[in-house]
Design brief:
Blueprint: H1 5-25, H2 34-37, H3 72-83, H4 99-111, H5 122-130
Length: 131
């Protein structure tokens, strides 16, 4: 019997997902914080102190963008904003830096103690990538 190559990866993913579900459902030992027993971190995109990338623009510090910009650098910013829990609009990651992306950028900047101008420059990129 021949098994397709993708089948093994799919089964492995299901097994890992099941193990994570079981681990999350198991009670934590007395005196242990839930974060210490979690199978993975959920506090943002860079759970292991590595910069976060969505794959639209892989430069560590892409160029400064603002409302009116369009393209993959905007998609990267929108994706990272969404990963941090900020709403960029009903179309999601669409590559168009409009008023809702500006609002999301300002919200993110405020949450990180940055100047909330809605412009995604070097300081905002650093925080989007690293928390």
């Amino acid at each position: 019997m021949q098994i397709k190559r993708g089948f093994t990866a799919s089964v492995a993913a299901l097994v890992l997902a099941g193990a994570a579900t079981l681990a999350a459902a198991a009670p934590a030992p007395a005196g242990t914080s839930p974060a210490a027993t979690a199978p993975f971190a959920v506090a943002g995109p860079s759970a292991v102190n590595a910069p976060a990338f969505c794959g639209f623009d892989d430069r560590l510090t892409p160029p400064t963008i603002r409302e009116g910009a369009a393209g993959n650098t905007v998609r990267e910013a929108q994706c990272l904003l969404q990963l941090w829990g900020f709403y960029v609009g009903p179309m999601g990651v669409d590559g168009a830096f409009g008023p809702l992306t500006t609002k999301a950028a300002k919200g993110f900047q405020t949450s990180r103690g940055l100047t909330a101008d809605g412009i995604i420059g070097p300081n905002t990129w650093t925080r989007l990538r690293n928390g």
